[in-house]
Amino acid sequence: MMKINWKKMNEKLGFSVLRLATLVVIFILFFIIYDIVSKGISSVNWEFVTDKPRKGMTEGGIWPAIVGTFWVSLVTVIFSVPIGMFAAIYLNEYAHQGRIVRLIRLAIRNLSGVPSIVYGLFGFSLFVLMLNFGLSVLSSGLTLGLLTLPWTITASEEALKTVPMSYREGALALGATKWQTIRSNVLPYAVPGMLTGTILGLARAAGETAPILFTGVAFFWPILPKFPDALFKQFMALPYHLFIMSTQHHEIVKVRPLAYGTAFILIVLILLMNTVAIWIRYRFRKKYKRI
Amino acid sequence: MSEIKLYTKKFDFYYGHLKALTDINLEIQKNKVTALIGPSGCGKSTFLRSLNRMNDIIPGTIIEGTVALDGKDIYDKNIDVVDLRRRVGMVFQKSNPFPKSIFENVAYGLRINGERNRGKIAHRVEESLKNAALWEEVKDRLDTSAMDLSGGQQQRLCIARALAVQPEVILMDEPASALDPIATQKIEELIFELKNEYTIVIVTHNMQQAARVSDFTAFFYLGELIEFDETDKIFTNPSQKKTEDYVTGRFG
What we know:
Helices cover 76% and strands 1% of the residues of chain A. With 291 residues, chain A is mainly α. Chain A has a single domain, classed as MetI-like fold (Orthogonal Bundle).
């Protein structure tokens, strides 16, 4: 009799701990969202999104920062998505799975743990100084590209691994070349996973401050340069603007609502990207379950 | 009279340091069914996968000796392995239809081999499905997913897919092991039909199946070929004690 009670007690206790942990996570998440929305929503309006900062950044909007973040993210995508995906395909499908590939993989995993400020320093010395791109959208985009590469490669490799070996064997046994097999029987089923991982990595990059701090972001740069000139100009970006507005501004208390408004927009943008990632995954999963 | 399609000579196979096959000498005759039997882990599947070099995709495998198709060593460095696999088709133990439509599954091998003519493709798909005894069951739903077929239908689809590229040899790795008796019977009848046009090598755990469908039987044990002879002889009057013990069910 005692024994059974102990078992039940144990079970209840275990579940309570698990439930509590989940509740703590949800609470923190909701608290952050509530805090930012409640303090930021009042300053968010059409003008805030589409206007330049004015009067020493105590009024006006954040449009240049949105545009800057967009350009930098675009460079990041163009640089890191193809390289990351191709590297993953090579590592997972072509490379001889020996000690060297294991070592490369280990190095890539470790790179994803390197602090972003270190990437910033590296990007500064490589892109800004050595390659002479200067403080610019290009330098920042490439630096963020380096930052996301390990994520892109790892996510892409994981996606490739989920494609059953039998799809590959079946195609090879019919006389398909390796590339035909990969193109027709592996990539179509791996691409959704690859995209999802890539977008999540990009969302992370878009919110990074340290790497762009070294490589091109500006305190105040209200000019809206046109492509491709924008590539070699400095820029404003949402995360850095947020940092400035909340810690460096000469009238911090006055611009606090603007800082929260910026945080709100940044979170909305990133949520939007994540939603797109989830949507892609959901769509493709449904598609390939059926046909 | 009888023509040798495939043979191996002093064939050894290693997974890294592990020797899986030792000194296999075997002759496979054209338009006959050759069954490979033996207990699990005896190397018969490894041997089968050596015949179209599917083991190449497993890292760290090493071979020694000769495997020859029509007298030509298939491990020679001048051999195009892609072409070899088109000539030596394979049906796997676990049916592996691609997550495409029934039509596209069968057409796949044609398309990757460069066939563009829609009429030709449609014709060959129909012919292959008929030869695999699946046409009547699927002709009205060629555009539906192959994943919705039953297990037995999926395996016949995989056979149709292999037939579509018109191979000379078909390797079957326990093609009916996951199927119910009725589906198994259909596959066996099919094998019987197919040997008029193809040379078939089949791995099976099912002794009755080997006896029913094959002309020749090879008994493998611990990586060695113990005995190879006409199926009747193997099952009624084997020359090796081990073979007799195995086919009569005394071990394995």
